[in-house]
Automatic annotation (TrEMBL), chain A:
<dbReference type="GO" id="GO:0043190">
    <property type="term" value="C:ATP-binding cassette (ABC) transporter complex"/>
</dbReference>
<dbReference type="GO" id="GO:0015833">
    <property type="term" value="P:peptide transport"/>
</dbReference>
<dbReference type="GO" id="GO:0042597">
    <property type="term" value="C:periplasmic space"/>
</dbReference>
<dbReference type="GO" id="GO:1904680">
    <property type="term" value="F:peptide transmembrane transporter activity"/>
</dbReference>
<dbReference type="InterPro" id="IPR039424">
    <property type="entry name" value="SBP_5"/>
</dbReference>
<dbReference type="Pfam" id="PF00496">
    <property type="entry name" value="SBP_bac_5"/>
</dbReference>
<protein>
    <submittedName>
        <fullName>ABC transporter substrate-binding protein</fullName>
    </submittedName>
</protein>
TrEMBL record, chain B:
<feature type="transmembrane region" description="Helical">
    <location>
        <begin position="174"/>
        <end position="193"/>
    </location>
</feature>
<dbReference type="GO" id="GO:0005886">
    <property type="term" value="C:plasma membrane"/>
</dbReference>
<feature type="transmembrane region" description="Helical">
    <location>
        <begin position="232"/>
        <end position="255"/>
    </location>
</feature>
<protein>
    <submittedName>
        <fullName>ABC transporter permease</fullName>
    </submittedName>
</protein>
<feature type="domain" description="ABC transmembrane type-1">
    <location>
        <begin position="109"/>
        <end position="300"/>
    </location>
</feature>
<keyword id="KW-0812">Transmembrane</keyword>
<dbReference type="GO" id="GO:0055085">
    <property type="term" value="P:transmembrane transport"/>
</dbReference>
Automatic annotation (TrEMBL), chain C:
<feature type="transmembrane region" description="Helical">
    <location>
        <begin position="191"/>
        <end position="212"/>
    </location>
</feature>
<dbReference type="Pfam" id="PF19300">
    <property type="entry name" value="BPD_transp_1_N"/>
</dbReference>
<keyword id="KW-0472">Membrane</keyword>
<feature type="transmembrane region" description="Helical">
    <location>
        <begin position="149"/>
        <end position="171"/>
    </location>
</feature>
<keyword id="KW-0813">Transport</keyword>
<dbReference type="InterPro" id="IPR045621">
    <property type="entry name" value="BPD_transp_1_N"/>
</dbReference>
<comment type="similarity">
    <text>Belongs to the binding-protein-dependent transport system permease family.</text>
</comment>
Length: 580, 314, 328
């Protein structure tokens, strides 16, 4: 399925897609210097056992959702929250820790979809007895309607899977003016048929997106729907004050018998927004009073690591699944000086990844990345084909620069999102040793994609990441390195603007392979081949550390949502201890 | 920030025969608080000017990482007590990066004081010019300038500064900050000078000068400006701490100088996250900021008492 | 007096329009694009154009400003088709980030900021004036010196330093107060106060220090006035003289400053609100900056300016009441 992944995760504020991740980040791994990683003991495990039904779960957040409107929700954490609590999609991920969390499970649909016409057409049937929060039945037309909404310019921000794959969707502007998509057919209330432009065997993976959640036309209030999505899930919105507070209560019309995924243990869920990140960390670590029944929304800050890692009692409550996103330094291969492969290789050699890791919270919360695709796609461990020391090789870098005719070094600019400022300074520092002077331009997360997506005005370097949507090389390499995906404005993924004939030819060949095993091996081989041409430097893969309260049960990092807490199962050990 | 604005200045009488400077020196020498303030200010100014030299003496540049000084497994905590204070790092190191705190504080003082002084200079120059023009020429000039002062003072300046700094592209952050901070400060001093000018322009000696054939420029620079100098000097000293605090506040909010340039406000902002795990990191730049602001406030108080005893106050 | 008020009110409106125009021009000319921000990660050129049109950003600047100003008085309708957005009087624009009219957002946050500002103001007036008057009446004693040294020191502390120290001391170490969260006054006045106590203190310390200094010198000056000496000579008790004559005249300059500080507090609260995570106007503003939400930035700037201008006006009018020497 398509892409558009966690470019955002790299920006720390807006986390994006990253579905996938079967087989990722399994058990505890050793740190770089051979010290045991103290953070990963709970990976693949559930904290607190099975929750009791009832009580109020509190979520402490420093921010508000980007969008809760299912047509616009395309940020990983927000998708977790939306699809696990408020709306159901055709297909969703199994609620399970570790690699099992990557398995697809039919949600509104009766099965994972039936392909025909060589996977150009996909048919889904809806389960009987599924209803909205007012008891009215969910229909196939409502799902079609929401897919159409996602095309509307009034409702930006959502995933573009539908736009990329649906037939005759070009130029479509949403249902507001009474126009509809002919490529989605609803022969009856419980059947929906998608007609695609090209064969797409992994289409069920795409129907996990909130784009494929139902929205009844009568309840659609355009942009305002964002503040009050109509529930098809186990909870409905009682009150929602933007940037302040969201209160969810049980949706009595949700039938657990139709839902194999969501457990809905707490009676009520209160999300308090706009708190200071460090205060959240401190409160979660102390876990006193009502905070014992609280979970944090955002990952632990690197600064708080010193308060968590030395304490065994707090570590017991720490989750740190991998986000499966590879952070990369991406160089503009289309213009000088980075059109010279030697210059790019010099950057590869000059970079001291250890320093960047430290500035990112240390080896406990990050893994060094020696290849492009995350470990998930390499059966658990990335290869190290270039054998560059983790701390870099300044002499080799200088030599390469000399060969490139840049013996005196040069000055260049790098755009980073605000949240990556620390990492950027670490990169700046290590490249300076080899004579490459980097000027950092920090951009607000909201403007980050617009800034780096404009290929004419952007800086020569950008720091951003990519996450596979699901464990297949086809969701990584083509999006990051296929020159045919480059757009002059709104470019994404291929930020090195890498356009290499041999690479593109090979990618087409692999995409045509029918044997998944062979294709996987071919992607892994290609990863190393591209790395040798050095369009980008893989730097690190982050974890998503969360410290939950002492009264929390059923908590694990959902690997398909980048390690975010799985809201389908989290609840309380003792509901009586929570705040009414 | 949070400086209260001025009430309308009352007429000031400078005793004849003694210039503001002689008077000031005589009076100030008697006050210990002033002496201490002057020492503190001089210390920081020298530090700022000699920053490159001092950091060379310390052996570290402000942007140099030292990964041996921090423990990556503990979120980059400095190794050693008191935030890693050692013979190698005199004031310890920044957590995570291991950058030398001494070098950063010293260079930070350069940035913070440069911005504060330059912004003050802009404020004082434009304020004095506008005040004199409004007071001396009167009529339409006065009306226009006074309206402009009212308008500028009605701007929610901090909000405006934050907004401007945050949307502005990365041109030259330091120059931009100086301009933005300077933009909103001038009406205060303009009002003081305007009041002074109004009271001075009909004095006998000014009239005499006018009758004697002096032009407006000569009268303004020779007769009026020296008369207004006392309150201007006092006022200037009193707004400097506000300027330092504003720079710090903007940097604290993340819209000030950009990394890796250090300024005190920016260092405080970064260190708040570590206030309990590495208190020295938070305390050191905070103390520098506190001492400088305090010293300028004390000096300004004293100068005002001496030079502008019944005049405008903050 | 009526004529005076009328003239001043006209002036207020003029100033506000001027501020709106300046703010509008600056933020709409500077390089930031709310449409691109809203468009998100994969934004095609066609989609961007459509979003710009929907937001009205394709119109010339003067047209946008005219729409904006008339919208304040008449309300306006944005967008088209099924997703028409009605923004009622007084329409300060529509926040696409929050999917809400700016006016609604401001009114939602105003009670929070007002709680913060007024509580802190009461606290700093009480603390500051007590300290200032005490110091003035005991001029040149040890009490005076101690109070004034304390005041200068406190005024030199940045508010973020004080705040962090308060959080550490009172919450982390002593465990006396909860981590501040906003509770509505109407739902639980006690929780409202106990949660806001810390931010109040943080703000009040800074201002109290300035007020102590100000009120001290003002009191000293007043107490030296001939009529006070006359009152004392007539044999009135010291207490009566201080309270009835001294305070009244001595506090007049304080009133000016207080009015302006209160008017400007909305802006000053940005830091306090962001440190304590209080969901008021300051935080709304700070959030709008990071998301490039221009209508909110403009709305907050205008609201803050209104407060300043109105506070100035109120102070001038109150002057006439408090100080019998002032006439219009």
């Amino acid at each position: 399925m398509e892409k558009r992944t966690c470019t955002a995760l790299a920006t720390a504020l807006v986390a994006a897609l990253t579905l996938g991740a079967t087989g990722c980040s399994g058990g505890p791994q050793d740190g770089t210097r051979g010290r045991k990683n103290l953070a990963t003991a709970n990976n693949g495990r559930t904290i607190g056992g099975t929750p009791e039904r009832g009580g109020t779960l509190t979520v402490l957040s420093n921010q508000d959702f980007t969008h809760l409107d299912p047509a616009r929700n395309w940020v990983m954490n927000d998708m977790d929250f939306g699809t696990r609590l408020l709306y159901r999609t055709l297909v969703s991920y199994k609620a399970a820790p570790g690699t099992a969390g990557g398995e697809l499970v039919p949600d509104l649909a009766t099965d994972l979809g039936t392909p025909s016409h060589g996977t150009r057409t996909w048919t889904f049937h809806l389960k009987p007895g599924i209803t909205y929060e007012d008891g009215t039945p969910i229909t196939a037309q409502d799902i079609k309607y929401n897919v159409e909404r996602s095309f509307s310019p009034d409702l930006p921000g959502g995933s573009d899977y539908a736009a990329r794959y649906l037939k005759d969707a070009k130029g479509y502007q949403g249902p507001a003016k009474g126009e509809h998509l002919d490529s989605i057919k609803t022969p009856d209330d419980r059947t929906i048929v998608f007609e695609l432009r090209k064969p797409f065997a992994e289409f069920p993976n795409a129907t996990v997106m909130p784009t494929f959640a139902p929205v009844p036309k009568a309840k659609d209030k355009g942009p305002q729907y964002d503040n009050r999505p109509f529930s098809s899930g186990p909870y409905k919105i009682e009150t929602y004050q933007r940037n302040k507070k969201l209160v969810l209560v049980r949706n009595s019309h949700w039938d657990p018998k139709t839902d194999p995924i969501r457990k809905a243990y707490p009676d009520k869920l209160v999300m308090v927004m706009g708190l200071k990140p460090n205060q959240i960390d401190d409160r979660m670590i102390a876990s006193q009073g009502a905070d014992a029944s609280a979970v944090p929304w955002y990952a632990l800050r690197p600064e708080s690591a010193a308060k968590v890692l030395p304490r065994a009692d707090v570590r017991k409550r720490l989750l740190a699944e991998s986000t499966n996103c590879t952070d990369m330094v991406q160089m503009h291969t289309g213009r000088a000086p980075f059109d010279n492969v030697k210059v790019r290789q010099a950057v590869q050699y000059a970079l001291d990844k250890e320093v960047v890791i430290t500035s990112s919270g240390g080896p406990a919360f990050n893994d060094v990345s020696t290849a492009y695709m995350p470990a998930t796609l390499f059966d658990g461990k990335q290869p190290d084909t270039l054998k560059i020391p983790t701390t870099g090789d300044t002499d080799k870098a200088k030599k390469l620069l000399k060969e490139a005719g840049k013996a005196d070094g040069f000055t260049t600019k790098m755009t980073v999102s605000n949240g990556d400022k620390g990492r950027a300074e670490a990169i700046q520092q290590s490249l300076a040793k080899a004579g490459i002077k980097v000027v950092i331009e920090t951009v607000d997360p909201s403007a980050f994609y617009a800034a780096i997506g404009d290929t004419t005005t952007r800086t020569d370097m950008v720091y951003t990441g990519w996450c596979p949507d699901y464990p297949s090389g086809s969701t990584f390499l083509p999006f990051v390195f296929d020159g045919r995906y480059i757009k002059e404005k709104g470019n994404s993924g291929n930020h090195s603007l890498f356009r290499d004939e041999a690479t593109m030819k090979r990618m087409d060949e692999i995409a045509a392979m029918t044997d998944a095993e062979k294709a996987g091996a071919a992607w892994r081989e290609l990863d190393g081949e591209i790395l040798a041409k050095a369009p980008t430097v893989p730097v690190l893969v982050r974890r998503w550390p969360l410290v939950v309260g002492t009264n929390i049960a059923g908590a694990y990092g959902q690997t398909s949502f980048g390690g975010q807490l799985d809201y389908a199962t989290v609840g309380l050990k003792d509901p009586a201890k929570s705040e009414g | 920030m949070a400086t209260t604005s001025m009430s309308a200045p009352a007429a000031t009488t400078t005793p004849a025969g003694s210039g503001p400077w002689q008077l000031a020196r005589r009076e100030l020498r008697r006050r210990p608080a002033v002496q201490i303030s002057l020492v503190v200010i001089a210390l920081f100014v020298i530090t700022a000017v000699a920053a490159p030299l001092l950091s060379k003496l310390g052996g570290w540049s402000p942007e140099e990482f030292d990964k041996n000084a921090v423990d990556p497994y503990l979120g980059g905590q400095p190794i050693g007590p008191l935030g890693g204070i050692s013979a190698d790092h005199w004031l310890g190191v920044e957590p995570v990066t291991g950058r030398d705190l001494f070098a950063r504080v010293v260079h930070g003082s350069q940035v913070s004081l440069l911005i504060a002084f330059a912004a003050t200079a802009i404020v004082v120059l434009t304020g004095t010019a506008a005040g004199i023009a409004a007071g001396y020429f009167g009529e339409r000039t006065d009306t226009v300038l006074s309206r402009l002062m009212d308008l500028t003072m009605s701007f929610p300046s901090l909000i405006f500064m934050i907004a401007m700094m945050s949307v502005a592209r990365d041109v030259n952050r330091i120059a931009l900050m100086i301009a933005v901070i300077g933009l909103f400060g001038w009406p205060g001093i303009a009002r003081v000078v305007r009041g002074q000018t109004l009271s001075l322009k009909h004095r006998e000696y000014v009239d005499a000068s006018r009758v004697g054939g002096s032009g407006a420029w000569r009268i303004l620079t020779r007769d009026i400006l020296p008369g207004a100098a006392g309150p201007v000097i006092a006022y200037t000293t009193l707004i400097i701490p506000g300027m330092i605090a504003t720079e710090a506040a903007l940097s604290y909010l993340g819209v000030g100088v950009r990394p890796p340039t250090p300024s005190w406000g920016q260092m405080i902002a970064e260190s708040v996250a570590f206030y309990d795990t590495d208190p020295m990191y938070f305390v050191i730049p905070s103390i520098c900021l506190f001492l400088t602001v305090l010293a300028f406030t004390l000096l300004g108080d004293a100068l005002r008492d001496v030079l502008d005893p019944r005049g405008s106050r903050i | 007096m009526t004529v005076y008020i009328g003239r001043r009110l006209l002036g207020v409106i003029g100033v506000l329009i001027a501020i709106a125009a300046v703010t509008f021009t600056i933020f709409y000319v500077l390089p930031s694009d709310p449409a691109a921000a809203a468009c998100g990660k994969s934004c095609s050129t066609e989609r961007l154009t459509a979003i710009r049109a929907h937001m009205g950003l394709d119109q010339p600047l003067w047209r946008q400003f005219a729409d904006f100003t008339t919208g304040i008085f008449t309300g306006r309708t944005m967008g088209s088709g099924q997703y028409e957005l009605h923004c009622d009087f007084p329409c300060l624009g529509y926040s696409y980030e929050n999917s809400e009219a700016v006016w609604g957002l401001l009114m939602d946050r105003l009670p929070v900021s007002a709680s913060l500002a007024l509580g802190a103001a009461v606290l700093w007036l009480v603390l500051g004036l007590t300290a200032g008057v005490t110091a003035a009446l005991r001029k040149d004693t040890l009490t005076d010196r101690t109070l004034m040294v304390g005041a200068v020191a406190a005024a030199s502390l940045p508010v973020y330093f004080t705040s962090v120290m308060l959080i550490y001391g009172l919450i982390r170490v002593a465990g006396l107060l909860p981590y501040p969260k906003y509770v509505e006054f109407t739902s639980d006045p006690l929780a409202w106060a106990s949660n806001l106590l810390l931010p109040w203190l943080a703000l009040a310390i800074l201002y109290a220090a300035m007020y102590a200094r100000q009120s001290r010198s003002s009191m000293i000056e007043t107490m030296a006035e001939p009529y006070i000496r006359t009152a004392r000579a007539k044999g009135l008790p010291r207490r009566t003289v201080v309270v009835k004559h001294g305070l009244r005249a001595g506090m007049t300059p304080i009133l000016t400053i207080f009015g302006m500080d209160l008017g400007g507090l909305l802006a000053g609260a940005v830091i306090t609100e962001s440190i304590f995570g209080i969901p008021g106007i300051g935080r709304l503003f700070y959030g709008a900056l990071s998301t490039g939400d221009q209508p909110v930035i403009l709305g907050v700037t205008l609201l803050a300016a209104t407060f300043i201008v109105v506070a100035n006006l109120a102070v001038d009018l109150l002057y006439a009441v408090v100080d019998p020497r002032v006439r219009y």
